[in-house]
Task: structure prediction
Amino acid sequence: MGQPECDIAGSQLSGSPKSGFILGGIWIFLGSARAVAAIGEPIGWSLILGLLTALLGAAYLVSALLLRQRQRSQVDEE
Result:
């Protein structure tokens, strides 16, 4: 018996690669803008919040890339 099929979209941050790329781009832009706006200020919550927001965007992009890669490998198997 083979391994059971699993729902790959359930383990991702977004339901499709397109939405993952869009959300990732938005979060990285907002995080980078906040971090740049905090330059010159003492390291505080604004810089930390900007960096964490950019990391969230990176997580969305990685998730979208993994989902796209899995979809392509499934198409290649068929």
